[in-house]
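MODEL INPUT / OUTPUT PAIR
PAIR INDEX: 1
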Amino acid sequence: MNAHSVNLINNDKPVVVCCGDSITHGHIGYDWVSSLRRKDGSKIYINAGINADLTWNLNQRINDIIKHNPDYITILIGTNDAIGSQPVKLIQDYYIQTKNLPQAPSIEWFEEQIEIFVKKIKKNTTAKIAITTLPWLGEQEDASIMSVINNYNVIIKKIALKYDISILDLYSKFKEQISEIESVPYTTSELRRLRGLRAVVLYYVFGWSWNKIGKKYNLQLLCDHIHLNERGGSLMENMVKKFLSA
């Protein structure tokens, strides 16, 4: 049930729209939106996550979110902004070309775009809104990419405070849960995409769980250094569940 195609004529249930990228889309990694939908028939859950989307892309489809007059909105976006903002031409070109971006990703552009998104949904809906801090990239807290993630999360927390919306601190949940640092490091090379492709093949062709796939890299909460495995996805699912029941 995605934001573009779903039809809610004569619906009398509260509508939850979950906005984001592949971590919300759930085709690579644990599909926490579908899990909530299966477990809770009292609400309509709409998945507004699209693989590889940046925050600018989310803004291009904001009308598909607003038109459903949601009662709740969750936002988990920025991981691709963070990856794409790294000074690696191959990565920047990939995002510009595949996502039709008008400019190269940057943290400044992310801050501009996430504020535009929050302002628009605040203005055009009456939904209760929660924004989520970005999860770890890889599971080594001292890796250089983690300082990038932290900088993006500073912006996310600032936006939450400025617009008085709830914050789901997924980053801190990772910090609480990751007990040992024995994982294979995250990489900005093409291995990043190959690990994702490998995860998809192992899950959909060979029937491996996302937990089992992540274990090949000694990952506890991720399956391929980017996407959530069942353990990591359950953290997000439980936070959203608490937000909806508050």
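PAIR INDEX: 2
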Amino acid sequence: MTQDISQDKKKVVLSGIRATGNLHLGNYYGALNKFVRMQDDYDCRFFIADLHALTTHPDPAMLHSNVKSILAEYLAAGLDPEKNILYVQSDVPEISEMYLLMNMHAGIGELMRTASFKDKARKALGIAPKSGEDEEEIEKEICGNQTNKSVNAGLLTYPTLMAVDILIHHADFVPVGKDQEQHLELTRRFGRRFNSFYKTDYFHEPVNFNFGSHAVKVPGLDGSGKMGKSEGNCIYLIDDEKTLRKKVMRAVTDQGPQQPNSTPTEPIQNLFTLMELVSEPSTLQHFKQAYADCSIRYGDLKKQLAEDILKVTLPIRERILDLRDNDEYLSKVVRRGAEQAREVAAKTLREVREIMGIRKF
């Protein structure tokens, strides 16, 4: 869909990234560079999701360090605190209270059926997925687990917290990947349910944001799947030159094309996809042609790819290093962001409490 920004009042865009480690090339091309393009035309609110991180990464020392790193990476990538509201999720306590209230309208069954909960619960419990199992079998696996491992309740209600992040700002657009589309649909469902139960039209329905093109899927270096922290196949924005070159040179390839005009295997297509993002079109065409005529040398391909990635990441890395140790500036940015976010959130929470009948005498 194409978004209309012709009205005087800018549409509200909201998004956040979990505080679970440094940001990588997938985060940059999948989200950050899009955020930068939005900030002049939309009312943008971008946050660091430290409460969401507690569902799987509760280490207190690492949590604070991750929040600080992601804030520096947001700024280094080009997000301007003068144009956006940049804040830490836990700095807005209204979110936590509204999370409690919204959970009163969320069903256990619908939360347990979310794909992300089932996947993460199984991972936490060490349960391998089985083909062809139905919902009841899955719930029995999770609820009947007899090991000393457990799944925290926050993982189950993750979609409710995400819904509150969005609804508390009355966001119009929420840029999400395919793996988060189910959560966005739950957000719309919770908003409709609230409106129906209290006979109001208080919440409107947010939609996914796109630029009129397919979502970018940045592949990892392991030959399959997308780039992700948990997969260990990332190029981080903070990687130094030596580390980055070593990672790219170790990327999975194959034995090479066996006959002219062969279709590239998945590992090679992944490298071409990365090259589409960072290299000149003529460079990509050169290596595709070399693959087609069976003259390609993967070592040369990787060296060129590393060189082109460094042109993107090294300037960002330099800004990250400058910002990361500037505690005074980082603190100023998040204090201001929290004030701005709380002003919006407090109004929404006050009105939600009133609608629900939570009123002072």
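PAIR 2 NOTE: The two ends are 47 Å apart (CA to CA).
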